Amino acid sequence: MSKRAVLEVIALDAEDAVAAQAGGADRLEIVTDMAADGLTPSRETFAAIRSSVDISLRVMLRLADGFAAGDVDALVRRARELRAEGADEFVLGFLDEAGGPDLAAVETLVAALDGCRWTFHRAIDRAGDRDALRKQLAELPGLDTYLTAGAAGGVDEGLPTLAAEAARRGEPGYEPRLLVGGGLRLEHLPRLKAAGLDAFHIGGAARPGGWGAGVAAGAVAEWRAAVDA
Fold it and tell me: Is it the case that residue 181 has pLDDT exceeding 50?
C-alpha cells in the first residue's frame, strides 16, 4: 500500500471528479451546495461521479448548513439510498446545543452505515472540548478520520492545535487520521508535514476561477507536487 500523503478534493459533479483525479487527488469529498458549506448530493450525482473515476469517494451526510443534525430519519434515508447506489465512505458530524457531539444522531447514522468508513468533519472545530469529543466518539465503528483546521477560524489559527494533536496520534481517541482542511494554503504544508501530518483537504484551492468554476486539474497537480515534496 502506498505511504504517500493523502490529497482529498471537494467535487460537486463528474467534471470536477475527472479533473481532480487527473491532477492527482487520492480521494474526493462529494457534496452539493457550497453556499451552505456542503450538503448531501443526490444519488444521481453520486452515481455519475462513481462511473467517471476510480478513486475513493466520501459522501457528505448533512441536510442543512451548520452542525445540528436536524431530521435524523431523513439523513438515514439518504444514507441508505446512497449505500444502495454503491457509496461506501461518508462524511458527517453533528453537535448538540452544549457544543458536544450529538451522540444520538451520530450513533443512529453510523448504525445505518453498517461498518462503512467515515470522517467526522469540521464540527470538531466548533466543539466545546475537542479532547472530550474524541473520546466520546472513539468506539464508534468506521471512524477513521477527522477533517479539521484545528480551530473554527481556519488553519492559520489552528496550527498549534494540529501539531499538538498529531503528536498524540495513537492515544485513546487520537487513532483516526487528521485530515487538514479549512483555509489551508500551500505555505502551510512545510510546517504541517514537519509535525507529522499527512492528509490534506482542499476545496476552493482547486478552483482558481472560484466556486462558480470547476476544479482545475493543474491546480490539483500543484498541490499534489507540494504534498509529495
Answer: yes
User: Who contacts 74 (Cβ-Cβ below 8 Å, separation ≥6)?
Assistant: 63
Q: What does 165-219 look like in DSSP terms, one character per residue?
A: HHTTTTSTT--SEEEE-SS--GGGHHHHHHTT--EEEESGGG-TT-TTS---HHH
Model's pTM, two decimal places?
Answer: 0.95
* Structural contact between residues 220 and 7, judged by C-beta atoms closer than 8 angstroms: yes
The closest alpha carbon to 180, from 198, 162, 200, 195, belongs to: 200
Identify whether the C-beta of residue 59 lies closer than 8 Å to the C-beta of residue 30: yes
Domains of the chain: 6-228 (3.20.20.380)
Concatenating the DSSP letter of every residue in 52-79 gives T--SEEEEE--SSSSS----HHHHHHHH
The C-alpha cell at 141 is 465503528
Specify the pLDDT at position 1.
37
Q: CA–CA separation, 130 vs 223, rounded Å?
A: 28
